[in-house]
Amino acid sequence: MHGRLYNQLDLEIAIVPQTPLLIKSGQKASIDPTLPDMQFVRTRRRTPSGDVDEVVYIPGSSLRGVVRAHAERLLRTLDEKHACLVDAKRSCLRQKDQKEDEVSADRLYRESCYACKLFGNTGIASRVQMSDLYPAMEPLSESRFGVAIDRITGAVAVGPFDLEVVTDARFEGRIVLRNFTIGQLGLLGAALLDIADGLVALGHAKSRGLGRVRIEFVRAQFRFAHEAKDAILGVGKLAPENVGNDYKLPDNDQLTVQGLNAARRDALYHQVDSDSDEQIRKWLAEAAPRWVQEVRNVS
């Protein structure tokens, strides 16, 4: 199914820290005494003037990990079986006797848990792609100091050590959701909205108050392989009947949205765009309840 494009959502977002934020670098502490013990992850980028400079950024893998972990938390609240446990024997594909390359793609999809159907596993590709998020302005950062306390003696076990945190910034990036059902759109939307509402934190030292962020939805673009009038169309509505049967896609896979009318983009695709944060949040909020309905119907 990944060899065809039935529908797609391009979502441009901005992440703005509400409390100090630290996405810790994997590098060990430097011997340079001027650098903090825990550094914010950095990459090298070319500036508009042509110079190459190091900038802090949020890796797409860091955001993806938080989104998937929270989505799995939501799924397990409904039922444990809807999200596999990586270290457990019932992890997706781990308990199968046949090798992955000997199993058809539709069977791998059907036998994967709901979380893996959306985020992928070693047998099926993910429907979600998340880019790195780069600063749109010069970030403000500072050093915070901490110690590790010995729980038995109450004395300082490690430290003091310093952390480099970003206190003010705007990180911009892109999320692409392809060949999605309405339930999968709803689950992704529910996870993003919970992060945007401050219910889920990012990065290091979340239990110490770091990592609360606000998500701004800058722009959304839907593409559908069929005409879409007053509705967001899921892959179950757009894919041929034989594909829907093979992958067990949901029936009537669409979400009624008054005023959403996709304009013809070319000979095949219809497209609708919005740069309204309020409108995009409304679309995601309307889709959010559908994942529960879809999961129950599949099970």
Question: In words, what does this structure look like?
Answer:
This protein is 26% helix and 30% strand. Strands 1, 4, 5, 8, 9, 12 and 13 form a 7-stranded antiparallel β-sheet that branches. It has 299 residues and is of the alpha+beta class. The longest helix has 19 residues, at 60-78. The mean pLDDT is 87. The protein starts with 6 loop residues before the first strand and ends with a helix. The chain has one domain (7-298).
Helix coverage percent: 25-40%
What about the largest sheet?
7 strands, antiparallel
Number of domains: 1
**Global outline:** globular
Distance from N terminus to C terminus (CA atoms, Å) equals 21 Å
Task: State mean pLDDT (0 to 100 scale).
Answer: 87
Radius of gyration over all CA atoms, rounded: 22 Å
Order of helices and strands: EEEHHHEEEEEHEEHHEEEHH
Q: Which structural class is indicated by helix and strand composition?
A: alpha+beta
Total strand segments: 13
Low-confidence stretches: none
Counted by DSSP, the helix tally is 8
Proportion in β-strands: 25-35%
